[in-house]
């Protein structure tokens, strides 16, 4: 069997796999994606792109494609509580969540991947994986027979039932499903006047959201009497309609279902995100109750974090030990994701006077601006700060404990000659950014830094809290601050 030779084989052609493949191709890495499905999934599990993900897209110049197709929503929710999370108060160019179906997000990311020359193989199911000191061999099946791949690295972005994770022997501890919910994309003959309707009562919890096509609504409902129905039992329109009527008094003339599904709260976290030359991203690394719409977003942020590091190693700019920082930085993020979705699950699934009283208490707390901002930043992923960078700093630079590893929000830069450019626009090529103040003496970065860095002389238009005096900054390819020179 002839084996295709690539630098990186990405298993899984959903949004996370496509995002990662694009990051690698941008850096000149030969990458191929292997997806078991022949066509994109027609249903949209996720419906929103959160503020940090919009920043991640902007860091690569992709945000116009998404903003043109989605609808900005200035608020989000925590456990479907009555008090909404206020994204408009966040320090970002994107103080909102973008309502956009996952099918469209995936289509836009596939468009990007194909523009960069990514090889996307659909209808390819991986069956075998073996790694050695130099690379990884994949074997699998396709419609016309079998296939084989030899890659220097393999990334499993193949979802909750990840074949890559299983074949690599990576543990996936956690808890099984203890409660299930129903979902339906349906037509409402008499839709409610408000764009989003959410209610939780002793009789259950329900949320109705228009899908933006002018026809369908997404209906999600938790019924106390149906919480323990197994995932394998299909949802019927009658079951969904009855549960909605129990909570809201009407089913709004529900008919013509496009998609009916049952989902649960299985919660698991990979023991490691890296096993030798095999790495995991997205749902292959963490699964949870889809509370707050965070899964897709955290997966895309995994891809950004891994992409520039894997590219740097393969291009010879960084040692392979840099890949260990992917686990060290993103595993704690996954752990916090599971913690907050477990918390939301508890608030959403206890239909008793005590459970409703607890919801009322939390909703009142969210009315306090400090509490609201803290949870909004958590859902938006603005609370993510990484430890000290894993690469040795070039001469003259150091870790600034107060700010190194912190996400930088976009802002205009005042460049030499009077031009103005945004900070994020200088990160579009996936390289580090050396930002020098105009008064700083010029110096040359040592190899291999100079081949992996965009240099610009400019002044920040506003101060970064905690940064203090500085002469030069080294900004990571993902928009987090790396090193500071004084």
Secondary structure: elements and pairs:
Blueprint: E1 3-11, H1 15-26, E2 31-35, E3 48-49, H2 51-59, H3 63-67, E4 71-73, E5 75-76, E6 85-86, E7 97-99, H4 102-115, E8 119-122, E9 125-131, E10 136-142, E11 145-156, H5 163-167, E12 174-175, E13 180-188, E14 197-201, E15 204-210, E16 216-222, H6 237-248, E17 254-264, E18 267-269, E19 274-275, E20 278-280, E21 286-287, H7 295-314, H8 324-348, H9 353-366, H10 369-380, E22 412-415, E23 420-422, E24 432-436, E25 453-460, E26 472-475, E27 481-485
Parallel strand pairs: 1-2, 1-11, 2-8, 11-20, 24-25
Antiparallel strand pairs: 3-7, 4-7, 5-6, 9-10, 10-11, 12-18, 13-16, 13-17, 14-15, 15-16, 18-21, 19-20, 22-23, 22-25, 24-26, 26-27
Helix pairs in contact: 1-4, 1-7, 7-8
Tags for this entry?
Glutaredoxin; 486 residues; 3 domains; 10 helices; alpha+beta; Alpha-Beta Plaits; 8-stranded mixed sheet; 6-stranded mixed sheet; FAD/NAD(P)-binding domain
Rg, Cα atoms, Å: 23 Å
CATH architecture of the largest domain: 3-Layer(bba) Sandwich
SS-based class: alpha+beta
Weakly predicted, low-confidence segments: none
Q: How much of the sequence is in beta strands?
A: 25-35%
Number of domains: 3
Report, as a whole number of angstroms, the end-to-end distance: 57 Å
Q: How many separate helices? A: 10
Q: For the record, what is the CATH homologous superfamily label of the largest domain?
A: FAD/NAD(P)-binding domain
- Give the overall shape, derived from the CA principal axes: globular
Q: How is the main sheet built?
A: 8 strands, mixed
Stated plainly, the CATH topology of the largest domain is called FAD/NAD(P)-binding domain
């Amino acid at each position: 069997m002839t084996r295709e030779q690539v630098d990186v084989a990405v298993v899984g052609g959903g949004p996370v796999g496509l995002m990662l493949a694009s990051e690698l191709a941008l850096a000149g890495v030969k990458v191929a994606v292997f997806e078991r499905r022949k066509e994109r999934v027609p249903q949209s599990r996720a419906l929103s792109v959160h503020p940090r993900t919009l920043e991640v897209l902007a860091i690569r110049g992709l945000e116009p494609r998404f903003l043109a197709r989605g609808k900005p929503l200035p608020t989000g929710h925590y456990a479907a509580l009555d008090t909404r999370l206020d994204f408009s108060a966040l320090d970002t160019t994107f103080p909102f969540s973008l309502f956009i179906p996952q099918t469209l997000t995936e289509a836009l990311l596939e468009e990007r991947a194909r523009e960069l020359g990514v090889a996307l193989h659909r209808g390819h199911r991986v069956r075998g994986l073996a790694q050695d000191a130099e690379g990884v061999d994949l074997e699998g099946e396709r419609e016309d027979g079998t296939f084989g791949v030899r890659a220097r690295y393999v990334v499993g972005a193949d979802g909750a039932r990840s074949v890559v994770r299983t074949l690599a022997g990576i543990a996936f501890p956690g808890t099984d499903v203890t409660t299930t919910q129903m979902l339906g994309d349906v037509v409402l003959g008499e839709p409610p006047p408000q764009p989003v309707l959410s209610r939780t009562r002793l009789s259950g919890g329900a949320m109705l959201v228009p899908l933006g096509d002018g026809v369908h609504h997404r209906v999600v409902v938790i019924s106390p009497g149906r919480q323990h129905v197994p995932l394998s039992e299909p949802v019927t329109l009658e079951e969904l309609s009855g549960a909605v009527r129990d909570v809201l008094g009407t089913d709004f003339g529900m008919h013509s279902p496009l998609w009916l599904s049952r989902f649960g709260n299985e919660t698991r976290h990979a023991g490691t995100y890296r096993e030798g030359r095999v790495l995991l991203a997205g749902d292959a690394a963490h699964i949870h109750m889809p509370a707050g719409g965070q899964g897709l977003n955290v997966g895309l942020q995994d891809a950004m974090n891994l992409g520039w590091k894997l590219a740097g190693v393969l291009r010879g700019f960084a040692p392979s030990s840099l890949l260990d920082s992917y686990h060290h930085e993103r595993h704690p993020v996954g752990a916090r994701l599971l913690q907050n979705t477990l918390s939301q699950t508890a608030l959403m699934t206890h239909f008793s006077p005590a459970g409703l009283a607890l919801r009322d208490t939390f909703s009142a707390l969210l009315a306090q601006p400090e509490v609201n901002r803290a949870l909004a930043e958590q859902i938006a992923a603005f609370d993510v700060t990484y430890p000290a960078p894993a690469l040795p700093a070039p001469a003259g630079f150091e870790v600034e404990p107060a700010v190194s590893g912190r996400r930088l929000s976009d802002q205009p830069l005042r460049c030499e000659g009077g031009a103005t450019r945004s900070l994020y626009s200088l990160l579009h090529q996936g390289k580090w950014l050396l930002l020098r103040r105009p008064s700083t003496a010029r110096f040359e970065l040592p190899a291999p830094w100079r081949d992996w860095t965009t240099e610009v002389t400019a002044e920040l238009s506003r101060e970064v809290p905690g940064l203090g005096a500085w002469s030069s900054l080294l900004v990571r390819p993902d928009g987090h601050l790396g090193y500071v020179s004084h």
